[in-house]
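User: Hi! I'm working on a homework problem where we have to compare a predicted structure to a textbook description. Could you give me the structure for the chain below?
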Amino acid sequence: MQTSSFLDQLLRAANDMAGDARNRAGGLSDRLENQGVGGLKLGQFAQGALAGGALSLLLGKRSGRKLVKWGGLAAIGTLAWRAWRQHQAGAGGHLAGVEPRTVDHLSGPELEQHSQAILVALISAAKADGHIDERERGLIRDEVARIVHDPELEQFVAAELARPVDPARVAALASSPELASEVYLATVLMVDEKGTMEHAYLDALAEALRLDPGLRRSLDAQIGNGAG
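Assistant: Happy to help. Predicted structure tokens:
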């Protein structure tokens, strides 16, 4: 699957989002139906707009300000590694010679594994407040199909959208401390920390990931989140 490239495009689309997220998503597919805008063929700009539509639908009424601040997939790995280093240093750990195994330093199957887990985390977080109904799931599936042209990835996203919210299942995908940090960070980027349901979901995920409280505070601090 093309998970890492799709996920990077989805996250970077936040930089182009403005105004109400749901209004931006409405009608986007129709405007690009003929594979172009104003007579121009679909290019990088249009692909980014499509990704913005899918992201808008996932965000619902949220503004996506945190996503705008941090951008693409590599940023999640960078922030996770920075938080881990700060936590280890504060705990008196030794960092000399330790190589980061975060998504921004990976390739091949390991990159795909991390990317899939992060994508699952984003989708699950988006569903935590219950705003995604069957109609919106269909719209998201349509937008994803327009972006990736990858049937396997399309089916993967559709399956995740249909699953019940289960932080324990998401946490089970985190096979390393680095990936656990990335999964948690991706979730923080998506949720509205003022929402009761979403805050409860974030707490449940942190517990299922078995995050050390100090590491969680360091992860939260990377994006100025008040959780925990």
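For your comparison, note the following. Strands lie at 36-37, 40-41. Residues 108-127 form the longest helix (20 residues). Good luck with the assignment!
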